[in-house]
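Journal club prep, notes for RB
We'll compare a predicted complex against what the paper describes. Inputs for the S-adenosylmethionine case:
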Amino acid sequence: MRKKRRRKKTADEIESLDKRIRVLLWERYGNTLAELEKIGNGVVNEFREWTPLKLLALSYFVGPYLRIMKGLEERYGSTKVFYIDVFAGTGLNKVEDVLFAGSPLVAIDCAHQCERKFDLMIFNDLFYGKVLENRIKALTDLFPWLEGKFIVYSTDANKVLADVVEKYLAKEKYKNYLAFIDPYRSEIKWKALEKLLRIKHGDVFITCQARSIAREIGGCRKGLKREVCRELAEYFGEDPSVWMRLESEEEVRDFYIAKVNRHKPFVECITIRSGRVGKGFEYVLIFASGDDNPDWALLNTKS
Ligand SMILES: C[S@@+](CC[C@H](N)C(=O)[O-])C[C@H]1O[C@@H](n2cnc3c(N)ncnc32)[C@H](O)[C@@H]1O
């Protein structure tokens, strides 16, 4: 894994970051988010103030990814490009009273700004698939290129990932994918994720709740919470004797990253933290690429 280079942000970068945060509010599309909220009786994913940060990170990824794909196609010929978000939510997120774009809308908006779109955007949510589908359908007037270019499932993410690999990715000779894997905690099973990671040409952005998982491992070690132990065994794809040795969130993060790294040669991570180190809320964003030196690794906040 590469070491992160830390440096002070320039004033330009801070301004660009501020602009990017406002992009999540979809100001440029007028009252579209409020209109979408009416579909599905106002159901939204409610989060705390640190949640938009992962969406901000996603928004830095999608445009450059598509531009890189376009460049590669110009050099090597046509490729099918997939976007996969199997914990997609309702399409709308709320922090207190503020409504902002959920991950599917962030990806759609970023793709809209690019000449090269995705050939297929695959979304899924076990609980909100239907409302998300209706909301995305309502967006096709605003984004006509979306017509026929998206599918929304409403089932278990693990099943969808396995099916998508089989039904779409395995069949295409020249393909690439960008996947966003954003479970609440440990709903993603290693067996399903590994199927995707084995498809070499593709980048993955995973949220890893390392702190909460480390706490649950503590409970499992004490013989509590059998159901959680079973879920963690599937999350890590390992026998409990392996992951029960992980004693801290850093060990959980590094262990999981090492597993991803076995399939993807390039892995970087960012820790999102609220409050002091060791207190409050923390999660890790893992970026992995099938390319051992992806062009997006050079991106800064101006991109
Ligand atoms: C962290 S939220 C995702 C938020 C969304 N990615 C966003 O940023 O706007 C996790 C989502 O996963 C869904 N979910 C939970 N368990 C699931 C499962 N086993 N399969 C698919 N979706 C699941 C929940 O309904 C919830 O909307």
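Talking point for the session: The pocket of S-adenosylmethionine is lined by residues 45, 55, 86-89, 93, 102-103, 124-128, 156-157, 182-184, 187 (CB under 6 Å).
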